[in-house]
Design the sequence.
């Protein structure tokens, strides 16, 4: 009996450690009812920032608006230096891929947000931030 309790406690410890690790690495994503997936990515190629954003709605929902912002960290604050808009039809994936010249000596990120609605439930406002890249 003691051995079973020990094994159970050991398994519980392992599961807790794995869950904590997933949380620390940012793998846990918010749950959305009308949004299947949202992504934001940034590639720096020389002095050019390649910004990509995508919102995939569920088949019965529409991305009524999507905003993608390129942000620069200056004096400790994130400032938007470029912004683009897009929208889509029911069930349609909305994506943007844009480039922008950037300055050396700063950190950059892409922020994507949108409004997704299916006409029945309240609209969702999913958002995603890319990893930070320095140039």
Sequence:
């Amino acid at each position: 009996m003691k051995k079973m309790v020990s094994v159970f406690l050991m398994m519980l410890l392992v599961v807790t450690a794995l869950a904590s690790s997933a949380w620390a690495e940012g793998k846990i994503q918010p749950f959305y009812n009308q949004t299947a997936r949202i992504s934001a990515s940034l590639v720096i190629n020389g002095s050019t920032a390649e910004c990509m954003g995508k919102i995939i709605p569920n088949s019965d929902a529409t991305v009524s608006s999507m905003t993608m912002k390129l942000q620069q960290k200056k004096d400790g604050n994130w400032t938007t230096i470029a912004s683009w808009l897009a929208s889509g039809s029911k069930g349609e994936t909305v994506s943007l891929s844009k480039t922008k010249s950037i300055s050396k000596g700063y950190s950059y990120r892409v922020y994507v947000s949108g409004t997704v609605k299916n006409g029945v439930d309240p609209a969702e406002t999913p958002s995603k931030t890319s990893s930070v890249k320095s140039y």
